Amino acid sequence: MFSAIAKTDPVICKLIEGEQQRQNSSIRLIPSENYVSRAVMQATGSCLTNKYAEGYPGKRYYEGQQFTDQIETLAIERAKKLFGADGANVQPHSGSCANLEAYCALAKPGDTIMGLALPHGGHLTHGWKVSNTGKFFKSVQYELDAKTGRLDYDKIADLARQHKPKILISGSSAYPRAIDFTAFQDIAKSVGAYHISDMAHIAGLVAGKAHMSPIPYSDIVTTTTHKTLRGPRGGMILFKAEHEAAVNKAVFPGMQGGPHMHTISGLAVSLHEALSPEFEAYARQIVKNAARLAEKLMGYGFNLVSGGTDNHLMLIDLRNKNLTGKPLAKALDRAHIECNYNSVPGDTAGPFNPSGLRLGTPAITTRGMKEPQMDQIAAWINTVAENLANEDAINKVGKAVQDLCRQFPLPEEFIKNQ
Ligand SMILES: *Cc1c(COP(=O)(O)O)cnc(C)c1O
User: Fold this and answer.
1) What is the pLDDT of residues 350-375, one digit of tens each?
2) How far apart are CA 236 and CA 289, in angstroms?
């Protein structure tokens, strides 16, 4: 399968094969990860990596754009159709780039931006202080209600009235509940702010109609392409027509040079997949699987932040179990169950060993797992949590996990041939 790499660089080849084997034989509960189709993988590994295409379709700085122009135009048209957006820029190299580019489109350095604080589920690039978004802009951060673990729209409105941000950011990396984008739009309007929504985590749910869309209620929507959306690693900016020139200038030449055309071609393929009826079924099953996993975990006495989930992810607050996130995440990894430790609202433990564990169902849903497998996975998580010092018990779970993985191999195709 990797014959050319094996010949040229056997060391790297072995490592890639090891990673492939690891992905095949573990249950991936990291909510930001997924598996792309063989078609997307081929497009991203194609000759498009050899081409410079600075500029936009029809306005490039290099010749030889007979095919790249068509590919990028198709990616844009498919993104607009899938999300019902006026316009799309498919060039951002990542979700983080897309965010800084979107802020630069609507604000100047030193202006105030307001987003959800990192320990409460916001992303670094929502203005957290170690991120350049928190250095180039004056950043104000809102938090979740410590009791309910939910967004408190009245408090966000108060903070917005106090600080008059230029940009109000909605969206999150670890919020298990539905987000009310109309409320964010109303708050932004009431203080004269732009509303930028970052749907990185939920883009696939939005595309599959399993979560409210932020598009009608936002000036700009940013996203990653590789999480629930199930495309190649990258970013994308969707915008209202009036922001087209500002967004496109902010991406190129504002922040980036040549677009990664191999990624954009993979994105075009994944958007084609996301426009299929199969994708809606996938998105709805992600939410059903998460609800079932959450219910079963609560049955084992795990506390979930906000008491459950509406979307693809959940956050376990381990404080009642006298556990912290890191040792449990490491033990689960030894049992071939991948997840990540995470802060919970009101956490007093540091970010390197916080009190929570973040789990999500997109990747296992892509493998075809459904409610019965969620019941098994919840039981295994409980067994590992109760046997942190018992390697035999952890190994036993690991064997069972590998058996399940063999029953649910990575699918290669997501849509039927038309
Ligand atoms: C993952 C994520 C990003 C950043 O994406 P990268 O491609 O890793 O830069 C931005 N915003 C949110 C909400 C995310 O979850």
Assistant:
1) 878 899 999 999 999 999 999 999 99
2) 27
